[in-house]
Amino acid sequence: MGKPILVGAVVYDPKVVLIWEIIADFFQRNGCPMDTVFYNNYELQVESQLKGHFDIAWNSPLAWVDTVRRSQGACRAIAMRDTDQDRTSHLVVKAASGIHSLGDLRGRRVGLGAWDSPQATLIPLEDLAGAGLREGRDFHATRFDVLVGKHGDHVGGERDAVQALASGDVDAAAVLDLNWQAWTADGSLDASTYRVLHTTPRFDHCVFTVLEGFSAGKEKAWLEVLYRMDYQDPAHREMMDMEGLKEWRPGRTSGFGPLLRAVETTAFFSRRDAGEWS
């Protein structure tokens, strides 16, 4: 067998290591050896891919945007989960709060996730700005900076924001639609006590990324094996449930518009690189 294809992945939870061990074993058995290079944060992962340290990055949406920016567009989005497509975020309030529009958040406290979370901070801030509400001027943002560097690839900051809403420490909280659905379904949130005030435009989430010079033949072989994973096969289902998908799909870039607008509105990268957000 040839040299394994190397995939970069950020460990935002211990289960990530197990997931990629299962995936690597699947690729090995299907004649396409691969291995994983683990990182603690997406900034280092992006930098390492640009330096050629591995072949394929499993990127957050913000890491994808950063890779496009830093490579001057010399990269490709090759695959993503079905659940990465057409996501939204909600601003949630208490049902009895008397808050009925974004304008009603003027002078209020909004609970957000980590400062580098697309779904729980950047895109909601973009929508609030579109409604004429600027952080620090028109409302107070309470950030829950859980696992900064992981780009919100976890529920920690969003869960803390919702708990702050429950305790009355904030007046609204930003949550990914999938988390809102899960928490209202399992009873973590009483759907009769809370309601969705606002829903963002649809956006896409994580994506496998390669640089322009990556071998088209290797990419084709790797994708062929990836697409063989079948949720109906019990041997695949456990891993796919852990990774939160039922189907791998071709990558697309049409769903990153809301995040592109958000990083521009917030001047995210220049503020990050200047050390303003850390």
Structural key phrases:
278 residues; 2 domains; 6-stranded mixed beta sheet; 10 helices; globular
What is this entry, summarized?
By secondary structure, the protein is of the alpha/beta class. Helix content is 38%, strand content 20%. The protein has a six-stranded mixed sheet with strand order 2-1-3-10-4-11, with helices on both faces. Strands 7-6-8-5-9 form a five-stranded mixed sheet.
Count of structural domains: 2
Based on helices, strands and strand pairing, what is the structural class? alpha/beta
CATH class of the largest domain: Alpha Beta
The coarse overall form would be: globular
What's the main sheet like? Answer: 6 strands, mixed
Query: Helical content, roughly?
Result: 25-40%
Give the tally of β-strands. 11
* Fold-level CATH name of the largest domain: D-Maltodextrin-Binding Protein, domain 2
Mean pLDDT: 96
CATH homologous superfamily classification of the largest domain:
Periplasmic binding protein-like II
| Alpha carbon gap, first and last residue | 43 Å
Order of helices and strands: EHEHEHEEEHEHEHEEHHEHH
CATH architecture of the largest domain: 3-Layer(aba) Sandwich
Radius of gyration: 19 Å
- Tally of contiguous helical segments: 10
Strand content: 15-25%
Low-confidence stretches: none
In what order do the strands lie side by side in the largest sheet? 2-1-3-10-4-11
